[in-house]
Amino acid sequence: MFETVRRIGLAVAATLSLPIAQAMAGPTVDAIKARGELVCGVSQGSAGLSLAGGNGRWAGLDVDYCRALAAAILGDGEKVRFTPLSSQQRFTALQSKEVDVLSRNTTITSSRDAGLGVTFVGTIFYDGQGFLVPKKLGVKSAKELDGAQVCVQPGTVNEQNLVDYFKSNKLAFRPVVIENLVELEQAFYAGRCDVYLSDASTLSASRAARAPKPDDFVILPERITKSPLGPAVRQDDPNFAAIARWTLNALVAAEELGITQANVEEQRKSPQAETRRLLGVEPGLGKPFGLDDAWAYRVIRAVGNYADIWNRNLGPQTPLGLAREQNRLWNEGGLLYSPPFQ
Fold first, then answer.
1. For residues 85 and 93, is the Cβ–Cβ distance under 8 A?
2. Which helix (H) or strand (E) holds 181?
């Protein structure tokens, strides 16, 4: 008995001591490097998430994620080409390899994750769907919307959730279905419909950026669904999926460790083991991904940590002024949590 236990113990110890093999870069990384840029699918325009400015430069939470991914792979967060996609185009563009990654305020659902040949790499924004209405309607609750005309995009979970919510609450509605987001918002603000249904973040961005008079519109208090938004990649390349997943984790881990875009150089001198691993001072972080050890350091140097990105695009000093709420770190009462880098 003792000899059997001893042999099992030796076998386990030997297994644990095996070195991590150097991963080979997958076909997506090879294509990105050969092209010299990452192609990122984004929305057609949502302030705070992905929006092209007057100078043509894209900005937003989803945009900065793609810059982080480009920094990890190519060493430069500016080596990204942004491709605006409608809700109906987005998955086809990813499946057909028109884009390398879809970072486009897309809700993670079971049918999408299991049935479209794509992999969601994590939740970048915990959101929920709500209703934007003109104040002049005098509506205080979504349950007062019986008979309303509702603007909604086709091919979104919003469309199905709209049907489910009104049916379960025995309310009637008339859908106004418009595929192009800009055209949909123009229709809403022009009075072609009474209600605009979307994620609360999208509604906040729209009201701030496109409403003729933002104070004339209000987001009703109800959130009719959970809406975890996350980037997606194709299922055919586990190496790229791992890089995409852990790039997102690196943004969260950096915030928890107190590493920011402003102090990342100084933090490379930290005695803290996890900080040194994350920033590539201690060797080993790159091998499993087929990257060099400094990839996460480049991510943070390019875009900062999750809080840096949030504050720059969505936070109190922006027109959207969104509170973090469930998008806070786990140890601050939120849902953001990164597995350990080791």
1. yes
2. helix 181-189
Q: At what angle do helices 61-74 and 306-313 cross, to 10 degrees?
A: 140
Residue 78 has pLDDT above 70, yes or no: yes
Among candidate residues 35, 37, 14, 33, the one with its CA nearest the CA of residue 24: 33
42: left (phi over 0), alpha (psi -120 to 50) or beta: beta
Find, among 285, 301, 303, 211, the residue nearest to 246 by Cα: 285
* pTM assigned to the model: 0.84
For 52, the token pair is 């092209």
Query: Which residue spans within 94-169 are E strands per DSSP?
Result: 101-102, 118-120, 125-134, 148-152
Place of tokens 């994350």: 278
Contact 24, 243 (CB under 8 A): no
Give the ranges where 53-109 is alpha helix by DSSP (H).
61-74, 90-95
Cβ pair 231, 62 in contact under 8 A: yes
Instruction: Using the predicted structure, report yes or no on whether residue 52 has a pLDDT greater than 90.
Output: yes
**Which amino acid is it at 179?**
E
β-partners of residue 119 are 233
Within 8 A by CB and 6+ apart from 210, the residues are: 185, 186, 189
Q: Which domains does the chain have, with CATH numbers?
A: 23-124+230-323 (3.40.190.10), 128-224 (3.40.190.10)
Tokens, residue 47: 């302030």
Residue 112 has pLDDT above 90, yes or no: yes
Kindly state the tokens that stand for 106.
Answer: 């897309």
Residue 62 CB coordination number (10 Å): 31
Measure Cα distances from 198 to 30, 161, 222, 296, 315 in Å.
37, 10, 12, 33, 20
